Amino acid sequence: MNILEYENYHETKTHGDIVFPYNTYLCSIPLDFPRVPLHWHDDIELIYIKKGSGQVTVDFRQYKVSGNTIVLILPGQLHSIEQLEDCSMEYENIIFHPNMFLTKKADTCSTDFLFPLLDGKITVPTIFTPVYPYYEDIAAPIDACDEICKTKPQGYELYIKSQLYQFFFVLDNRCRNLVQPKKSNKSLDKIKIVLKYIENNYMDKIPIADIAEVAGFSESHFMRYFKETMGTSFVDYLKEYRLTMASRLLVASDSAILDIAAEVGFENLSYFNRAFKQKYQMTPSAFRRENVRA
């Protein structure tokens, strides 16, 4: 899976088989890519750091992470992955859909744990490090899934599902937070709609009037809201997002730079080249030469 699929899998890709939506991907920052922009999806995602250090943001809270840390991303949570200073980080993405565990006829597993977890009525930790009391219990079923995926013997899907149930058991039995879950954050829900629109339309013109309408704000209110929420202007965020996607295409495809610039929403090649060099301190062609693996 290339990085474009990684960033847009919740829109365009089904992980694993359609009847068994479970898959894993090995990634390296910055060797594969320097960052994964803020996004969200309907899958459960585990970011299992194997080596090095990096930064993961979940619902605008930043975490510095290092080897053997497991980050739990629940459906709908905004998250990003970035390089931390000059550090590198190797990690495994484990992605699966909760529908694997939700039966048509509700049972106790769904009504007493899965539904409340997915609805935010109960909370569990986001970060699990080796110093967490139940870290080994959390990591063991994930490690077991990784091990069987090396050979995928007959019936391995049953084994994976059983281990994920074990993972959920540990979350429910030992890791429930005692604090009450926070009330729904309407501002967070609104920015998720905006970011989803950007993900789906960044390659086209996005007038301020259109994106403000998506958010249900006037243009001036939207501009203030976006800057306060994201810490940058909408125009600058959109430019940065397009440049990030361009950097992925430069590495993942053989397309001409002119075509890549147009594909990510830049109508003027000279402006694209200047903006790209300002962000990455090198031209698009130099970036491609330096980052494409032999």
Which CATH class of the largest domain?
Mainly Beta
Low-confidence stretches: 6-16
Name the average pLDDT: 88
**What sequence of helices (H) and strands (E) makes up the elements?**
HEEEEEEEHEHHHHHHHHH
Total strands: the figure is: 8
Q: Just name the CATH architecture of the largest domain.
A: Sandwich
Number of helices: 11
**How does the major sheet shape up?**
8 strands, antiparallel
Structural class: alpha+beta
Number of structural domains: 2
**Over all CA atoms, what is the radius of gyration?**
20 Å
CATH topology annotation of the largest domain: Jelly Rolls
Helix content: 40-55%
* Cα-to-Cα separation, first versus last residue: 18 Å
Shape: globular
Q: What's the CATH H-level homologous superfamily of the largest domain?
A: Jelly Rolls
What does this entry look like structurally?
This is AraC family transcriptional regulator. InterPro entries: AraC-bd, Homeodomain-like_sf, HTH-like, HTH_AraC, HTH_AraC-typ_CS, RmlC-like_jellyroll, Tscrpt_reg_AraC-type_HTH. It comes from Roseburia porci. The protein is an alpha+beta fold. The chain folds into two domains: 3-174, Jelly Rolls (Sandwich); 186-291, Arc Repressor Mutant, subunit A (Orthogonal Bundle), CATH 1.10.10.60. It has eleven helices and eight strands. It has helices at 3-12, 108-118, 135-149, 156-174, 186-201, 208-215, 219-230, 234-252, 257-263, 269-280, 284-291, and strands at 22-29, 35-39, 44-58, 61-66, 70-73, 79-82, 89-96, 127-128. The two termini are 18 Å apart.
